[in-house]
Write a structure and sequence with these properties.
mainly beta
């Protein structure tokens, strides 16, 4: 069960805005990721709880940020309920999309579990509902994912397979690289792995 800490930064000016303390693990029904977020000064900022089924679909998502809350799942595309800080108003949403995304590294892992790309695959288009900070506002985005290469590196704990993905935002054409080993993001825009207590899980 990987356990560790990511630092989250503005991908443009690299200003740090949160640390994400996480643990995750594959299970008999899929994969689960749980984290707590703190501000750079150590105050509580929010939390993430994401569970995937064995096909990589989000069967449960619960996000908290700035007293806002989102609960969602894959249902007729993806469906969610967003609740305001007072708890007085809840709005439902539904989009014919494949999955959710947001600032947490969990979503990058989830997309790779859903797509199951190989280096020989062509670019694969995916529609996502992104929950944007700080109020978890939903926004539909279209991306293209390509697995550029898969490399195995020797480490003190045995071999580590690292996948390098190219992600393209289809509305702007902006591209970036994401490096993932098992269920841990090694590097991505705005995400740095600061601490890892145990090796990434190996998916079958």
């Amino acid at each position: 069960m990987p356990r560790g800490r990511y630092s989250l930064q503005d991908p443009h000016d690299h200003t740090p805005f949160a640390e994400e303390h996480f643990h995750c693990a594959p299970g008999p029904s899929g994969w689960r990721y749980v984290s707590q977020l703190t501000t750079p000064t150590g105050d509580h900022r929010g939390s993430v709880d994401l569970a995937l089924d064995e096909l990589g679909r989000p069967i449960r998502l619960e996000l908290h940020a700035a007293s806002w809350q989102v609960r969602g799942a894959a249902l007729d595309g993806v469906t969610w309920v967003r609740t305001d800080p007072t708890g007085a108003h809840a709005t439902e949403g539904n989009v014919r999309a494949h999955a959710f995304t947001g600032t947490s590294p969990a979503f990058l892992i989830a997309i790779t579990r859903l797509l199951r790309l190989t280096p020989s695959d062509s670019a694969t288009r995916v529609r996502l509902v992104a929950f944007t900070d700080p109020v978890l506002a939903p926004r539909t985005v279209d991306q293209s994912w390509t697995l550029l290469k898969r490399e195995t590196h020797g480490t003190d704990n045995g071999s580590l397979t690292v996948d390098e993905y190219q992600v393209t935002a289809l509305d702007t054409g902006e591209q970036h690289l994401v490096h993932i080993a098992g269920d841990v993001v090694l590097a991505a825009p705005g995400i740095e792995l600061e601490d890892l207590e145990s090796p990434p899980s190996v998916f079958p």
